[in-house]
Amino acid sequence: MKLIVFALAVLTFVVLALAIGLWVLARQIGILFERISPMGALVNDSGPEVGQSTPEFNLPSLTGGRAVIGPKSIRSTLVFFLSPTCPICKKLLPILDSVRKAEGGWLDVILASDGEDAQHERFIENARLSSYPYVVSAELGLAYRVARLPYAVLFDEHGVIRAKGLINTREQLDSLFNAFEMKVGSIQTYLDHRMAVQS
């Protein structure tokens, strides 16, 4: 009897140790994935290219007024494509808010999506997005060939696209601004060019 109790205690200890080990391993894999993720926003080859003029739109905003997408005197624009059902989009909203506050002197941020207005109105209220221009337009997404979310396009005051790409992390969002300042299409292109020059 004592032997059975001892064996059960050992097995319980082994199972707990394996469960803890599995949890630690999964956590380390997640950290490793973040560290080796691609530098910068993931740029796709479809839609208007970096260096081209943005398609121009003047769209009604669900939060009031109109959102102008195109050239603006002394103001650059970040169009951030999102969806009320996208968990990564929701995770990035506080980061987007801090970026808007930090860069508000020269940057306008417009939120864009498509679908039914009622769903977006609830999302605006629940996520407290009433201070952003929020447009719902399938044509806008088609113009930029947005296939996956969240996606962002940054263009300058002349309406020239300076950076764009799929955004999953704060680092990828920041990379759009780094590319803007460095006057390169993307951080990945810049790094690829440097490696080609060095080899």
UniProtKB/TrEMBL annotation:
Kindly tell me the pathway this chain contributes to.
One-carbon metabolism; methylamine degradation
Stated role: May be specifically involved in the processing, transport, and/or maturation of the MADH beta-subunit.
- What residue stretches are annotated with the Thioredoxin domain? 48-182
GO cellular component terms given for this protein: membrane
Keywords assigned: Membrane, Transmembrane, Transmembrane helix
Question: What organism does this protein naturally occur in?
Answer: Acidomonas methanolica NBRC 104435
| Compartment(s) | Membrane
Name of the protein described by the UniProt record: Methylamine utilization protein MauD
